[in-house]
Every structure is written in C-alpha cells, then in structure tokens.
Write a structure and sequence with these properties.
The chain is globular, with a radius of gyration of 28 Å. The protein is mainly alpha-helical. The protein contains 31 helices and no strands.
Length: about 550
C-alpha cells in the first residue's frame, strides 16, 4: 500500500471541502444556499451546482461559497465551475492554497506552458504535493516535444516520488520512444496486481503492438487477464501520462479511506485527458464506491470496445445494474459486439446464473469448450469445465457435472479447486467417501490456507468418525470465513457429536444469520431440538 498522503495541514481552498464536513455553514442566510442543499438531497446535482455558482457570484469573498461550489463541481464533473471556484477563492484567501493543481490542469489544457510551469513552481515551493513536481515538469517537457528529464535519480531521491514514480518512468520511456528501456522496466515491474499496474500494462500493450512486438504485447495482456488482441493502439501522450499519475494518486487516497480526496484527483485525471479510457474507468470505479451509480454508469458507457479497459467497464456496468435481467442484457449486448470473446461469454453465463436462468447459461459454458484451450497445462479449460459442472449440478444434473469434473481433473490434477469440488461433491452425496477424502486431502496439501478446502477436509474427517481431528480443522476454517453458513453448520454438527452442545448451538446460530430456505429451516430445528440424522448437514 502506498504511504499516506497528508493533505489537511493547511485549510487551502482546493482541499478545504475534502477535509471538512460534507456541507459548510451557509455563507449567508439567503435562499440560494438552502435551495442548493435541498436540490442535493433530492439528487438533483446539476441544479444544485447552478445554485452554488449563483451563490459564489453573490458572495465572491466567501471561502465557504467557493468550497461548496468546488465540491459540487467535482461531484458533477464540471471543470469550468471548479476552475471558477478556485480562481474566485484565491482572491478570497491567502496565496497558501492547493489551487496550483487546478491552475496547472487549466494551463495544460490551453497549452499555456509558461503558466503551467509557474503553477508547478508554486506547488513545489509551498504545498504538500511538491513531490509531484518532477513528474509534472517531465510531462510539460514531453508536451513541448522535449526530453522529459525525469530520471531514476529523481525517483530515488526520497520522499513520495519514490512511491508514485515507478510506473511514470515506464510511461515516459514509451512516450519518448525508448521502447527497449520501457520493455526492461516492465519485465521487472511488480505491480500488475494493483490498479495502476493494470492501467500501465493496458497502455503499454498498445505501444508494443504499434512497434511490432506482438509477443510482448500479448504477454502484458496475460499479466492482467486480457484476451489476445484486446488493446488500443493509440500512442501514449503527455495527457495520458498525467492522467495516470492523477489516477494512481486517486487510487492511493481511496485505499487510505479518503474518498472525497480520491474523487478530486480522479476528476483531475479526467479533465486533463477527457478521452482516456483508463481515466474514465478509474473515475467510474471511484464514483461507484461512493454510491454515485448513475454517474458511474454513464462514464463507463463511454469506454470504447477496442480499449483494453472495455471488458472491465462492462463488468462494472453489470454490477451497477438495478436488476439481474438488466445485467444479463448488458452482458449480452457486449458479447454481441465481440462474439468470440471468452471473457464476455463467461460474464454472460455468470449473469444468466445470477438471474436464475441456469438452463441458458449451460450452453454458453459448453461453447467455451468448443475451442481446445490448453494454456497453463489445461488450467483454463479446467476452469471452464468447473463452471459448467457448477451450472449442471445446480440444475440437478449431477451425472453431467461429475463427467465435467472428472475431465477437469485429468487436465489439471494439481488444481486445488478441482480436487476440492469433486472431492467434496463425493462426500456430500456419500457416493465414495474414501475417494472424496483422498481428493480433499490432496487439495489441502496444495492450498492449506483456503477456508473452503480446510472445511472440506474437516468435514471428511467428521464423516469418517474422526471428530477430534475434524473439530480443529473446522474451527480454523471458521476463523478464516466467519460468516460462512456451511462451515459454521459443519462445526456445529461436529461439536454436537463431541458432546459440546452449547458450542454447537452457538455455531448453528452463527450459520443461521445468513442462511436461507431449507438450510435456514434445518438450522432452526437443530437450534431448538438438537441434532438428528434428519437435520444433519449434507
């Protein structure tokens, strides 16, 4: 995790709203303030923004009015109103503010390089974000057709630059045409599992494809789970580099539980590169986490299908859907756009299952098996077979499900998930407890940290009558998955068999919290009357 960015040391305009309560006191007892508040509460953000703008025009010396307008402008995405709030606020307070960030973005958009450079100097001299100065200046140089000047020595000079500049080095290399150096840095990059690493790989794929290195472009895609060929070919520009810097800071701030600060920086990234799909996605994800779902969905819809970030945008759109059927429709529309996409087929099938349309999902899963997918020692095909098995199993076709699982096991004999799924299914149905025990034991050897697999092994020991061995395993599983219904029920049954009846009822009550349907009814019976063969966990 990135170090904490402390930004509330000064009560500067650009961040005053972000460090204060959601609504500052009304700068005057006029109707405009209260109208704006009422409109905000009613979800009419655009109308509220207009009221705040009128309020600031009426009270240009009020920091509170400027801050309220800036907060609304950030939420609504109005650059012009945000800039008005900044510039008006600068006149109303001391020069010691974080306004240079907005001033920089404004000057950069207008290609007023001297103004942008002056804003960086102001930021560097006075404010908490001075560590950004080498990167800002580097992109100013690139924008003007010069060498960035950003170097490893600046990265290693200490301070926050060392934490936030590693991916910037790659962006600079690729923007300046230093493809070989960029490739070397990417080979040593360790942040692909982080959002900024995902964005970096997505952009770099396009650059290497443009340079003719399709092999490395595909390798980068695999690092972040993208399908071959799903990448943009547009060149990395100064605007994109800056947008990704702001996006990375936004992500770090969000991880540090500073959602409003995060949104502010995400907006800066969008404003400086309004066509960047990565900036749009970063902003949309922040909007979603803050409950601004309509704004998030609208932003996601602007990500283009040829983008390496399009699939994630579709996933996020389905998550925002009001109903399972709408999520299905979104996934189907995307699949119609790219009908050969395995990722979109998977998404579509999963959304069908969530909409209780399992019978429609099964042929989609089968279609994934039409191609002989054997990468990773058969692991991809094995995964598809497991998903098919799950759908068949849930639809009542255990014979078909077992056949799929047996094939998956042949393809991936060391896959802990396959071993556990098949093994536990055999235990659950009491078909072949001996073989089921062997399979889940092997799964546990491969993945002892998995709560589900630990539960399977504990339950296998329980079914063998080895209660003393079962209980510690089931207890460990519960610690890793406290609210899991099945694991808590298993532990309760084991406690009861060991004569620990009070503890058994405690575990059953924990399971009952989230249980539904027949499982809930079974748990109530056990809590009230104790364990019987009829109420035993499957």
């Amino acid at each position: 995790m990135a170090p904490i960015i402390r930004i509330c040391r000064r009560y500067s305009l650009a961040l005053l709203l972000l460090c204060a309560a959601p609504s500052l006191a009304a700068p005057e007892p006029g109707d405009l303030y209260w109208d704006a508040q009422r409109l905000e509460l009613a979800g009419q953000g655009g109308a509220a923004l207009k009221s705040y703008a009128k309020l600031l025009a009426r009270s240009p010396d009020s920091e509170a009015a400027a801050s309220n307008l800036l907060a609304a402008a950030v939420r609504e995405g109005s650059f012009d109103d945000a800039l008005t709030a900044i510039r008006t606020g600068q006149k109303a307070q001391s020069a010691d503010s974080d306004a240079p960030l907005m001033v920089f973005v404004d000057a950069f958009r207008r290609k007023k390089w001297a103004e942008a450079s002056a804003a960086v100097a102001d930021l560097e001299a006075k404010h908490d974000f001075a560590f950004m100065a080498p990167m800002l200046n580097g992109w100013l140089n690139v924008a003007q057709g010069r060498a960035s000047g950003f170097s490893v020595s600046q990265l290693m000079s200490g301070g926050l630059t060392a934490y936030y500049g590693d991916d910037q080095l790659v962006y600079f290399d690729l923007a300046e045409g230093n493809i070989a150096q960029g490739k070397l840095r990417l080979r040593n990059f360790r942040g692909y599992d982080e959002p900024h690493g995902r964005f970096l790989a997505g952009h770099a794929m396009g650059e290497f494809a443009r340079s003719g290195d399709q092999e490395f472009a595909s390798a980068l895609g695999r690092q972040i789970g993208l399908e071959q060929g799903n990448y943009a070919t547009s060149k990395i520009t100064a605007e994109i580099g800056l947008a990704m810097m702001f996006a990375r800071l936004a992500i770090a701030l969000d991880e540090q539980k500073q959602p409003q600060n995060a949104l502010y920086f995400a907006r800066l990234g969008q404003w400086i590169a309004p066509t960047s799909d990565a900036a749009k996605l970063s902003l949309a994800e922040l909007l979603q986490r803050q409950g601004l779902n309509e704004k998030s969905a609208a932003m996601l819809k602007t990500v283009t299908p040829n983008s390496p970030f399009w699939f994630q945008s579709v996933v996020n759109q389905t998550q925002l859907a009001d109903t399972p059927d709408l999520a299905v429709a979104i996934a189907k529309t995307a699949l119609d756009t790219q009908p050969q996409s395995a990722h979109l087929k998977l998404l579509y099938a999963q959304r069908l299952e969530q909409a209780s349309k399992r019978e429609l999902a099964i042929p989609v899963y089968r279609s994934l098996l039409d191609k002989d997918i054997t990468e990773g020692g058969g692991s991809i095909r094995a995964m598809h077979l497991m998903l098919l098995a799950s759908a068949l199993d849930a639809s009542g076709d255990w014979g078909g499900a077992q056949k799929a699982l047996e094939e998956a096991l042949v393809l991936a004999p060391k896959n802990a998930q396959v071993l556990n799924y098949l093994g536990y299914s055999l235990l659950e149905r009491r078909i072949d407890v001996k073989r089921g025990f062997k399979l889940v034991s092997r799964a546990y050897e491969l993945s002892p940290q998995s709560a589900a697999i630990t539960d399977s092994l504990g339950w296998a020991h329980f079914l063998r009558g080895e209660i003393d061995i079962a209980i510690p395993l089931l207890e460990a599983a519960v610690k890793s998955a406290i609210g899991d219904v099945a694991i808590n029920e298993h532990l309760g049954d084991a406690y009861w068999s060991a004569g620990r009846k009070s503890e058994a009822r405690f575990a059953w009550r924990a399971a009952a919290v989230a249980a539904e349907g027949q499982v809930s009814e079974r748990l109530v019976q056990k809590i009230d009357f104790g364990w019987t063969k009829e109420t035993a966990a499957p």
